[in-house]
Design the sequence.
């Protein structure tokens, strides 16, 4: 692992990622599970010249940024971890944020990719240099160049701020769940929480006991399922340590269950019936107030929006210091929030649990491919990539957790590892053929895209709800419309004819 300095950012030429002579140099943009996983898997595959660029001040991605009270994963930790780094010592079935953050950094440290990572460095632009078969990077710390570009920028790394009249003039603190203000003491305050998605259902139960009052502003309810979270006893953790097969078995069972869920949301929609029944039962069991029960019961099909796992959300809504407001917000005043019906509810603090710019992908970084065409142009009106990983016109570039690799169930870490198997297969192909550039064929990308859109049309995500998967024009650059085992199978090797490799004549001069 190295990031060799041969020049600096004062005009003497780009700093070169990699050491040369030991396989291609790889620049990885983003230091979350994707960036760390990519770096470790490349090193393990014999490609040590990798450098992670992370704009934040530490690695971890969403787990470094989302420190709101109650933050935790909603996939059991034995699946929400790298397969090559099982952690038998998770404290709970669903690990809390701080533990996941610790885990990512520990894995990075153990594999030697933590220290060399360039944190506090934003990649603002990446341009393909056809003559030299290299990616030229502009960053907040000067220029760099690399043979291969991997973007691991996440789908949920840019907080989404709602446009609401008066929000800027609110007198108290306003912050997004992904930018939690730990310096703001919520004890005995009146808090307004806007949004009822995954972050809200975790943070509201965590802050409710200490605040004076919470008003939760709901646009449309989402389906929930019991989380059935529990603490692992010391005995259980020791058992996982002593008998790793136990943990593998749990991982496999969790994966199988979630893959059935994936089938239910896509080709086998009849499988959703028991999930819908469990969702309804959870509401009727927890909520006695018929009016409240009606207001939290979704009208749309289960799975259309992301299903949320919780044991605490409905009991919290019944607490005397909590109100669920379903009347649309009209405007924010300096001292509270006014709804369309004219009611103004006072607030000391506003928490925006309003999700992320999930369709931004690599933005705001500008990526320029062959012929000066930008990725933003290529992706207008909708982002698309072959297996979510590669785009024609952008040679030697791979996207991790790219377009259409999100699911309604499953672990994103599994997706990242499967994608990396594909990237390693591509690098092996470059080595074997002694080529400098590899690019997915446009006809292949087009054929994949047609197949993908046909499958998506029959999925539960396109049954008419509003969700972060589908935009206002019906475009869906988010979801993978098949099972996760299918993703793994399709990414494990390069399909014959999918890619074209070439040797750039001048490359030997610049290498
Ligand atoms: C609160 C929360 C809970 C979640 N829980 C789960 C869960 O339980 N299960 C699950 O499967 N998924 C979950 N997710 C989804 C999560 O996004 C993925 O699981 C996974 O962490 C994504 O990793 P990533 O590395 O692809 O992206 P991220 O973790 O988003 O990391 C991307 C990193 O890239 C950096 N970056 C972006 N652009 C640039 C640039 N131009 N230059 C430099 N750095 C850049 C960002 O700062 C960020 O740190 C959750 C997401 C959130 C927000």
Sequence:
């Amino acid at each position: 692992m190295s990031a060799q300095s041969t020049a600096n950012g004062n005009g003497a030429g780009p700093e070169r990622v990699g050491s040369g002579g030991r396989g291609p140099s790889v620049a990885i943009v983003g230091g979350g599970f994707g960036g760390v996983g990519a770096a470790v898997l490349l090193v393990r595959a014999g490609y040590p010249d990798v450098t992670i660029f992370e704009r934040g001040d530490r690695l971890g991605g969403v787990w470094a940024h989302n420190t709101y009270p109650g933050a935790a994963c909603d996939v059991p930790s034995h699946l929400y971890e790298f397969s090559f780094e099982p952690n038998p010592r998770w404290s709970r079935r669903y690990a809390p944020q701080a533990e996941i953050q610790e885990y990512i950094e520990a894995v990075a440290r153990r594999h030697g990719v933590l220290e060399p990572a360039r944190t506090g460095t934003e990649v603002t632009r990446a341009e393909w240099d056809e003559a030299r078969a290299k990616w030229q990077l502009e960053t907040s710390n000067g220029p760099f160049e690399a043979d291969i570009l991997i973007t691991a920028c996440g789908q949920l790394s840019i907080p989404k701020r709602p446009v609401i009249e008066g929000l800027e003039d609110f007198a108290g603190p306003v912050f997004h769940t992904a930018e939690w203000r730990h310096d703001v003491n919520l004890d005995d305050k009146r808090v307004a929480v806007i949004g009822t998605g995954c972050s809200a259902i975790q943070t509201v139960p965590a802050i409710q006991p200490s605040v004076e009052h919470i008003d939760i502003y709901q646009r449309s309810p989402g389906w929930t399922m019991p989380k059935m979270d529990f603490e692992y006893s010391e005995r259980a953790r020791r058992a996982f340590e002593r008998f790793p097969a136990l943990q593998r078995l749990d991982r496999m069972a969790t994966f199988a269950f979630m893959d059935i869920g994936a089938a239910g949301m896509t080709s086998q929609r009849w499988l959703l019936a028991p999930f819908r029944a469990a969702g309804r039962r959870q509401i009727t069991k927890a909520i006695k107030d018929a009016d409240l029960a009606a207001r939290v019961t979704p009208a749309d099909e289960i799975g259309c929006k992301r299903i949320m796992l919780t044991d605490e959300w409905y009991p919290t809504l019944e607490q005397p210091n909590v109100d669920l407001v379903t009347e649309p917000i009209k405007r924010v005043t300096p001292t509270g929030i006014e709804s369309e019906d004219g009611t103004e509810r006072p607030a000391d603090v506003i928490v925006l649990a309003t999700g992320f710019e999930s369709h931004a992908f690599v933005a705001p970084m500008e990526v320029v491919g062959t012929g000066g065409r930008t990725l933003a142009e290529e992706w207008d009106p909708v982002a698309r990539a072959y297996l979510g990983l590669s785009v024609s016109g952008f040679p030697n570039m791979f996207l991790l957790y790219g377009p259409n690799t999100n699911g309604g169930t499953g672990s994103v870490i599994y997706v990242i590892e499967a994608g990396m198997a594909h990237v390693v297969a591509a690098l092996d192909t470059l080595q074997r053929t002694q080529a400098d550039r590899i690019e997915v064929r446009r006809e292949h990308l087009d054929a994949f895209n047609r197949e993908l859109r046909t499958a998506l049309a029959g999925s539960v995500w396109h049954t008419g709800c509003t969700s972060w998967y589908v935009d206002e024009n019906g475009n869906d650059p988010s979801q993978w419309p098949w099972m996760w085992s299918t993703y793994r199978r399709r990414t494990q090797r390069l399909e014959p004819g999918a890619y074209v490799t070439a040797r750039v004549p001048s490359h030997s001069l610049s290498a």
User: Anything to note?
Assistant: The CA atoms of residues 166 and 332 lie 5 Å apart. The two ends are 18 Å apart (CA to CA). Confidence is low (pLDDT under 50) at residues 1-11. The chain has 14 helices and 22 strands.
